[in-house]
Structures are given as C-alpha cells and as structure tokens.
Specification:
The chain is mainly α and 460 residues long. 78% of the residues lie in helices and 0% in strands. It is built from 21 helices and no strands. Residues 20-453 form the Major facilitator superfamily (MFS) profile domain. The chain crosses the membrane at residues 16-38, 58-83, 90-110, 116-137, 149-167, 173-194, 264-284, 304-322, 329-350, 362-385, 397-418, 430-449.
C-alpha cells in the first residue's frame, strides 16, 4: 500500500502538485507550531520562574486559549471576500504577514494583551489557511491523489503541533520566536515560483495563463504526456464553460437553499460540531493541564509530546488509505472511536476519585493516545477535504467559508469554556460531554454523510 502511495505521488505527472502542497504547508506547520507552543508555555508563565514580567490568571488563560477562535473567525470572513476576487495565490501570500507578526508579539510581550494579539494572529493564519489550501490543492491535484494531498494539510499541522510541544518544553521562552520567524520568510519566497490554479484563471477568462498553469502542475515530460495534458486541459476548459453556461446567473441565496446545498450544509454543520464539541482541539491546546487533572503518573509535558507523535501517525495513516477506502468510512470510525474513548476516559477518572487505581495511572495516556489517533485518521485529517468536496461547485467557496465561520465560532466557545468546564465540572463530566457529542455526530453522519471520493471539483 505504501509503495502504491509513493508511486502515485512521486511520478512525474504529480511531482509539482506534491511540491506545491509541500510549499503552502510551510504555513500550516507554522500554525501548528503556534498552537502547540501554548500548552507547555502556560506552565512556564504561570510559575514563579516565569520569563515574563507579568502574571497570567486562570481567566486570562481561558482567553489565551479562545482568542485563536476569534482570529480564525476574522480570517474566514476576510478570505470569503478575497478568495474569488483576488485569487488563491494572493490569499496564500497574505498569510505570511500575520504569521510573522505573531512571533514578534510573543518575543516582545510586556503584558497579556501582547499574548492575546499573538494568539489572535495565530488563529487568523490558521483560519485563512484552512479555507484557502484545501480549495487550492483540490484545484491543482489529480483526482486520484486529491485526498492524499489535502490530508497533508493536517499532517503538516500536526508536525507543527509536535514541534511546538517540543520546542516550548525544552527551549527558553524567547528562543522559540526567533526560530519560528524564519518560517514565513521561507514560505513567502518559495511561493513565488507557483502559478495560480487553472480553474480560477479559466473563471477569469485568462486562457493562456490557465493553460501554462495546468501544464506546470501536470508536468508533461514527453510527447505522449504533453498530448494527454492538452487533452485534459481541453476537457477542463469545456467542463468549466458548460458550468458557466449552466450557472450563468449570479450567485444568489436560492443557490444556498437547493436540496444538495442544504444536505451539504447539514453534514458540514455536524462535522464542525463533532470536531469541536468532542473537544479534541481543546485537548491539544490544554494537553498538559488535561493530563495533570487525570492523575497520570508520567510527566505531563512528556506525555504531551508522545501524543503529538501519535497525531502524526494518525494523519499519516489517513494519507495512505483515504483514496483507497474513501472519506466516509474513516470519518465514521473516527467519530465513533473518539466518542467511546472519551467516555472510557471519563469513567476511569470518575473511578479514580472513589477507588485506589494507582496501579493503572498509566491508563489516561493510553486512552488519550487512542482518542487522538482515531481523531486524526478522520475528524482532523479529512475535515477540510470533506467540506470542500461536499458542496456544489457554484457555491463551494462561499459555502466552505460559511462552514469555517461556524467552526471558528465553535473553536472560540470550546476553547473559552474548556478550562472552566474542567474547573467547575471536573474532568470526568467534561470527558462524558465530549464523548456524547462524538457519538451524536457518528449517528447523524451514518445516515446523511455521502461518499465524495472521486468527485469532480467542477461537478454539482
């Protein structure tokens, strides 16, 4: 299976598609670094040996966590306005600026407002990237490898989260931003070589530029490949022309309330609820605190790094098999597994409060590994790919942005409430609440989530 995957990605036709995916994902790696940085850093800045000149309270910690959701929300609204007007590449270039500012603010933080602004910019970068990149990659990728390339968005993010865990655990506070500032520079310079996607250029009636872009990403190396590339481009051009004739009327609210659109919105809304209300994202942001509350015998920061490694294996598993077994099966397994894992975690911590379970105080780590692994094979790895593929082509950009706005609101709410839930409800009830949402998502998606593997990106 791994060999099939390698051959499909590294053959000459798809080599530049893989290169483009790797380049844009520099910033998703960076976003993951910003997310992973928080969990070990909270312990440092709340300790008597804090590297900062100010104290951070529990209320301010909850705002630090949730500001990423507000940043993501603002990014979703901004990108929704720019994506079709300015193009994918302009939006991609744009991300370098807030990401660089984020680490400048972290380095020079003189009060908690600097950290609020840094987390806001971290959310802005991620919120924009997770809208633009799946659409950009879907438009340049061959159908046979689209799932694998799109899941690399979350693979890069998880590598970044792991790097954030490790660097902020073992390096001084002010060293991390110095290293991280290199990422937006490399990202911006590398993106200069990549052209705009052919489907977007065809929408703008830039036929010559579209043909050059298509040839760049398909990379024909011999006469046979060149003939195939020209044939494929002509097929794309005719399909886009037919779609434009069919959808000649401007986009209106009626396009958002057709039966296929409403069905897609319903599935997207539940996907967002499942991802955020099962609190997997909160676990990642507050992992050290979660382990500390569970009575885990191992060092909380070391356990957090272990879980960061597990995230990578989860998304890599998805990358290997998503274009073989499909999206729907992985999403269902992921939701059900996370739900059962969270319920089991809550049962353990509840029993540990009433009985002596010191011989099993390694179990929270094992359960969290299972939860995070299963979350990453579907819920996390395929979330944005699933959003892009669910919606009809005419409303895809707008509908994806609307869905990610909904997700950003949920991110803000869950990250704001998670520390308060842990404080007032305790870890057991919080985990049962998370598991219940994942089970609800599984039941809904079992009946209403369609399989989208192989779906054309210009298909309604």
């Amino acid at each position: 299976m791994a060999k099939m995957f390698q051959n499909s990605l590294l053959q000459s036709r798809t080599r530049y598609q893989l290169l483009a995916t790797a380049i844009v994902n520099i910033i998703t790696f960076g976003h993951g670094l910003g997310v992973g940085w928080l969990s070990p850093t909270l312990g440092k800045i709340q300790s008597p040996e804090s590297p900062l000149d100010f104290e951070v309270t529990i209320a301010e910690v909850s705002w630090l966590g949730s500001m990423i959701g507000l940043g993501s929300l603002c990014a979703n609204l901004t990108i929704a306005l720019l994506l079709e007007r300015a193009g994918r590449k302009f939006c991609i270039y744009l991300l370098a600026v807030p990401y660089a500012c984020l680490w400048i603010l972290v380095y020079f933080a003189s009060n908690v407002v600097y950290l609020y602004a840094a987390r806001f910019l971290c959310g802005f970068t991620g919120g924009a990237a997770f809208v633009v990149f799946p659409i950009y990659i879907s438009e340049l990728a061959d159908t046979s490898i689209r799932g694998a390339l799109c899941s690399m968005v979350m693979l890069s993010y998880n590598f970044g989260v792991l790097a954030g865990f490790v660097l902020s655990t073992y390096l001084p506070y002010h060293v991390v931003p110095i290293l991280a500032i290199c990422l937006p520079i490399a990202y911006f310079l590398a993106n200069l070589m990549l052209p705009e996607t052919a489907p977007y250029l065809l929408k703008r009636s830039q036929l010559s530029a579209a043909e050059k872009s298509f040839g760049y990403y398909k990379n024909p190396t011999d006469q046979k490949a060149q003939l195939r590339s020209k044939s494929d481009f002509e097929e794309l051009r005719m399909a886009m022309l037919a779609q434009q004739c069919q959808n000649s009327e401007p986009l209106s609210y009626k396009d958002l309330i057709t039966r296929p659109a409403l069905k897609a919105f319903g599935a997207a809304a539940v996907l967002c609820l499942g991802l955020e209300c099962c609190n997997v994202y909160s676990f990642i942001n507050y992992m050290s605190d979660t382990f500390a509350s569970s009575g885990l015998a191992l060092d909380a920061n070391t356990s957090t790094i272990i879980v960061g490694i597990v995230q990578i294996f989860g998304v890599y598993t998805s990358t290997l098999i998503v274009d073989i077994v499909g999206r729907r099966l992985l999403m269902l397994i992921s939701n059900l597994g996370v739900g059962l894992g969270c319920i089991a975690f809550g049962c353990f911590t509840y029993c540990a409060e009433h009985y002596d379970l010191t011989d099993f105080n390694w179990l929270p780590l094992v359960l969290m590994i299972i939860i995070i692994y299963l979350a990453n094979i579907g819920l996390i790895a395929l979330f944005f790919l699933q959003l892009v593929e669910l919606f009809p082509a005419k409303i895809r950009s707008l509908a994806t942005s609307i869905s990610v706005v909904w997700m950003s609101l949920l991110i803000f709410a869950t990250l704001k409430l998670f520390p308060l839930m842990m404080f007032h409800w305790g870890i057991s009830v919080t985990m049962w609440f998370s598991g219940a949402w994942a089970i609800f998502s599984f039941i809904y998606l079992l009946f209403f989530l369609p399989e989208t593997m192989g779906k054309s990106m210009i298909e309604d």
